[in-house]
Amino acid sequence: MEIGSTNFLQRRVVEVEEEKPMKNEQKKQHNRIVEKKSRKKISWGLVPFILAIIGLAGGLVYLYLEYQKTQNKIKALKDPQKRLEFDKEQAEEVVKKLCKIMLCPNEEYTVAIITDIETAKNENPVFFKDARNGDRFILFKTKAVIFREEENLIINVAPYVYNPQNSTENESNKQQNQQTIGNK
Predict the structure, then answer these.
(1) Is the CA virtual torsion 65, 69, 72, 78 positive or negative?
(2) What is the pTM of this model?
């Protein structure tokens, strides 16, 4: 027991020596080291939080700007003249996409969206057999085309003979679903 008790006393003496009060310069240096360590922990802890706030703010600004664009489009579409311009732009975009994958005639055309495929299939089952609602029906003076814009796919093409005498009879029906524009 004496050996064990002397070891204990030696350890206690070492611990007491370590606990001696520091000199002023040592305290200042020790405090600086502790402050530097604590600053680094705080700054690195805040970086992800700050980045998250900036990202959230940026996302909210983006969503607000998109909302404003949508509201402006809605307002513009309520005006008949602007609606006509919008429809013309949309039809031109569809025909441009079509003309990238097919040789299109340089003539006037009509673009319509197929909204009731069953009725169209009843009128012409062969031409509309693979078409579906949402496909574009593009009518040139010399040919008719069914085009699926989202897949950039031509569904069917058929020759068409333009007859001006029949066009006056069907003009009221065409104006409900179609927009006639000139090809540039």
Answers:
(1) negative
(2) 0.51
